[in-house]
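Recall from the previous lesson that a structure prediction takes nothing but the amino acid sequence as input. Here we apply that procedure to N-(5'-phosphoribosyl)anthranilate isomerase from Bradyrhizobium campsiandrae. The sequence below is the only information supplied.
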Amino acid sequence: MSLLVKICGLSTRETLQTALDAGADMVGFVFFPPSPRHVSLETGRDLGRQVKKRALKVALTVDADDATLDNIMDALSPDILQLHGQESVARVRDIKQKFGRPVMKAVPVASAGDLAVLPGYAAVADRILFDARAPKDATRPGGLGTPFDWHLLENLALDLPYMVSGGLQPQNLAEAVRITRAGGVDISSGVESAPGVKDPELIKAFIRAARATRELSVR
Ligand SMILES: O=C(O)c1ccccc1N[C@@H]1O[C@H](COP(=O)(O)O)[C@@H](O)[C@H]1O
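The prediction returns the following tokens.
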């Protein structure tokens, strides 16, 4: 099975085009104003049109309310909703029912205890995204360029597709996939020259590196 690659935090036509041409499976748009990658609804609409089914469009939100999600549905028509906040199991179920799109729930990881939430989310989400737990004083719950201890997922038995993120780079993604056996990788900071500024060469290098790890992936 081919490793899924998601390039997250795209905010310009040029870098979106680079990600599409390089073969990204998923392209992520951040709708979270404190993030340096935040896009307005208008920009999301414009970038969404550019995708033209060449990749899955992922809307990243953080504890968004229904009105916000309604607006994002209208503007981007995402293929996947990435819930990257503290959404409860009930809220994830509710969003999936109300908006009728597959949901990828981000689970923050810093220690083995963080995996206790998995049975609950696995019952309602379509995919799990393991990301490094952000420090308490962080301005956002992800997109910080820091990895977590991938060995925490070494013996994971999860009956659901999952991806890994947090501090990935072209140089370390093979190791992350080898240890976690994730079916996909998600990156933002690692393909940037500054927060929010995507670097086309790094996007291409990351996707090239991901394609080279194909045989390591199992889920
Ligand atoms: O990218 C952001 O700004 C962001 C903001 C709020 C929540 C999540 C965010 N990004 C996600 O964080 C991870 C890790 O990113 P990085 O490669 O370590 O920078 C990734 O899943 C992004 O989708």
